[in-house]
Amino acid sequence: MKIKTINALLPLLLLAAMVSIVSARQTPRHPDSLRPPNIVIIFMDDLGYGDLASYGATQYHTPNLDRLAGEGMRFTHFYAAQAVCSASRAALLTGCYSNRVGISGALGPTSEIGLNPAETTIAEALKSRGYRTAAVGKWHVGHHLPFLPLQQGFDEYLGLPWSNDMTPFYYDGKRTFPEGQERRKNYPELPLIKGNKKIRELTTLSDQAELTTLYTETAVDFIERNREHPFFLYLAHSMPHVPLAVSSKFKGRSEQGLYGDVLMEIDWSVGEIVKTLEKLELSNETLIIFTSDNGPWLNFGDHAGSAGGLREGKGTSFEGGQRVPCIMRWPDVIPAATVCEKLASAIDILPTVIDISGAEQPENKIDGVNILPLLRGDREANPRDHFYYYYGKNNLEAVRRGQWKLVLPHSYRSYEGVIPGRNGMPGKYARGKTELRLYDLRRDPGERYDMSGTYPEVVDELLGLAAQARADLGDDLTGHAGSNRRPAGKVAQNTTKQE
Q: What residue range is the signal peptide (predicted)?
């Protein structure tokens, strides 16, 4: 009788053993384990706060990103460090406000500076823990040889050295330029770089239509080749920065036109990354971070994204310029289908993944904080106390703590009161000027109602934070140099440049 019972239970015992083995294999690895978790950062270009279905987008579908949000954490108060390309990317890679490391604006083909090799990047920190590292896509923190990814901690690189609009043709693909844009005719053809060498020139919008697929295939190949090692993949898409271009797979697929088509292809790209991780049984030991470098370039109208009701867009320190979508997934660590309303920023990614991987913190001062408690779902955690909104070379334009944002007096480029462009052509900018204003972002995310007269004590508190920032990082608007800024890297006369 006992033998019969055992025989009857044997299939169940075998099944339980198999489940146990699979569970053990898929248990996420932590810093004290033999192999730290993989890190995948997917960094978008000019994606607005309202550009994903999970953040309110309509007329196109992002099912893979919806799934990522459903299986992970969606941040509602996540900030790019600055509302412009190069500054934002330098900040992400170093965990510093970009003015601390000497990078501002959008570096162009004639720039002689780049991210200083003396700075510690995410890639360099993770390599010390045995990670294989790859950068795929837009780089934009220095195109000369000393500043390219292979000299900044990455084992592999394929992508563009700067934005896809820095070309000798205009947004319509023609090689004629309106008044004020003639300098662009002297730009080199857009170079596609592999490693340290240019391997191709992209001379048409049709060439650019290949980019999302090319980046995706390169990223998938990197993951497949490094399945047995911890890896760091930095996938920085060139889209949806204008000029927009999409492959034939997605052209005409959305109800929103070309912008929606581009976002659907980006969503497909995310799906390919997730599918590859699942196929290789790496999902549970991989942290995926999806976010954007800044908000939407609104004067491009139907070729621009949505700030989701936030004020202004790219190139401003209002919420539409710097508050961006962010989704993170790490099964069994990040609680599924959660929303984080705490303050966080792209500068927090470096110290967080360093803690996760067990790597050493940089010797130089950084500005990021470890947000791992937020990822674990600790509702009492509040690692980021405040945030500084810098723009330009070194302009301190706002300070935030908790629900309160103090906008400091400054002039700014504005999208309000002017008609945006259409079909890929830009509209005009307006100019705005603001005095000291206090906004309650919990009740007024559109930054319309000044509360400074009602809460003078909050104004004083935030002015105190601004004074600390000026002593540390400086502020060109008030003539403060700051005591803890570091220089960008500069090309020496005898230094080999990237050809």
A: 1-24
